[in-house]
Amino acid sequence: MEKKDKTIVCKDCGEEFVFTVGEQEFYEEKGFENEPTRCKECRDKRKSERNSRRPFNREDR
Ligand SMILES: [Zn+2]
Question: How confident is the model over 38-53, as pLDDT tens digits?
């Protein structure tokens, strides 16, 4: 099946972002079954927020 770029609406900011073929292949390669629900900006934001949190290092499971 031929892959195509996909437009997804970000859960966080409501903006549309493109889930490119390259990214889809990357996800497939990694075995991720879920498509991203957030745009790259929001993902980066969340990541840096997590990293900038106090050094408590307690992850919810
Ligand atoms: Zn977003």
Answer: 999 999 999 998 888 6
